[in-house]
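User: quick one
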Amino acid sequence: MKIVACIKQVPDTEAEVKWDIPGGTLKRDAMDSVTNPFDEFALEEALLTRENNDGDIIAISMGPEKAMDVLRNSLALTVNEVHLCSDAAFAGSDTFATATVLAAAIKKIGDVDVVFCGKQSTDGNTGVVGAVLASILGFSQLTFVSKIRSIDAAGKKIVVERAIEGGNEVVEAKLPAVLSVIKGINEPRLPNLMGIRKASKMEIPQWSAADLGVDAGKVGKAGSSTRVVELTVPPPRGAGEILKGEIEDIANMLTDKLIDMKVIK
Amino acid sequence: MANDVWVYIEHRDGQVTPTSFELLGIGKTLADSLGSNVCGFVIGEGVDAIAKEAGSYGATKVYAVDAGVFKGFRADAYSKAAAFMLDKYKPEIALFRSTSQGMDVAAASAAQLGFGLCSDTIGLAIDGGKLKMTRAAFGGSYMVSVVNEKAVPQIATVRPKAFAMPAQDASKSAEVLKESFVIDEASLNTKVLEFIKSAVAVNLVEADIIVSGGRGLGSADGFTLLKDLAEVIGGGVGASRAAVDSGWMTVEQQVGQTGKTVKPKIYIACGISGAIQHLAGMRTSDCIVAINKDPDAPIFKAATFGIVGDYKEVVPKLIEKFKGKLGK
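Assistant: Done. Structure below.
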């Protein structure tokens, strides 16, 4: 099987966010970064799929040179191959432009059976790149995947569970497919020391817009129909009232206040 | 009309809830700004009753694709039908709820039309004739406003409960326009085999009241008390990442950056310290109650009402008082 894992580098949640104002884009180079937490589940599912079905894993990422770090981490986890899609022309890509670049990379890899993405990124939080990618490629679109029940590589079929509102939907789909996975699908492993050492010496191949054969006008800022026009920091939630006194009185006070809101019936 | 605002009416196997019509309210506001009409669009089999109900929530017209192949939701079938209708009528704006189904159809139909979209918006307004879409980034630490300059329609998914439910008026009705669009079953990629109902009774994203627990509960047993409180006040039970990762609660109940984003009217956080990752998932709740032993816990900075104390003492007292006052 040919398995692709799409990995994004995101700023560490605890890190100070640095924006390019007024451009509305992130200064990704200037921030502490990590692998997008949801992509760790995608990568782990790719590793499990390889263990159960044989095959190769190709991890890809789109981003600045710094994003090599997350691909190096993927290499340490023993993926077979990595490619960084990096080009000044990709900067400022919206979800459609991002998926366009990833789709071109997946076409270049060729004969891919299954693509894993995380449900969403923790920086942009858009949660649609996996679905858009499936649509561009014409692959089966399987979102919110919480379990892979079976893969029939020869028969080109996959059965998954999707965690949607109210329960789990069991879906059979044709391969190739793009799966976006949720937390809980697995427990991501950590790379071991040997893996880290080996990965530290490996070269990270890069693909430019020209390498991928994508028209620079169709990606990046130029190819994105959506544009950030305003960036604001919401006012902090004012600290409220600390209820003090005997527990009996506090409980009385609080239940009165909450009942007064007329939400509790 | 070309500058109409369309609202996707979501259902599951023909079943709707009032929230299926939630966006007709903001849709009408936007249509009024544009001097146009709010319309519904629905895909399924036997959708006349749904179309009629959409009229009672304010849709002036409802466009429908109605055929057997669309009986149950499938992303590929529904997004092709949606893209067909959006391309044919080219409304100015198309709104979908940020649910699993809404996101699937919005993303795939936008991609088929060749445009980007803006997902999980919480603010929508017409600015200079264009839709200004405001959304949270970095778990709500920043608000980003986006316009979609080239796309027709401008597609947005909207976070549940971001806008008020429209009032229902049974005397109002919509004109239903059926589109003859079908797809050959053989050309579809997916087949739904079964649906396994969750044991969790309340969908936290739609819940008005949530009682949530974190590491401070000390063990899975602590959630028994929280469940009792939730039952008395008619709420759902949530959990922080720490509680989920400890195996005390299911992932389905996790609130926060890697869990659900919720917006209840009342959020009661017990033994939750209030890490930025947790706040990301619940900071827009109307009223936050924090119960924590540690007076320095960051959760108190976000709380409407704070109680410094042990949940084991506070929660039973709250249950007792609620039961008395609510006559339960």
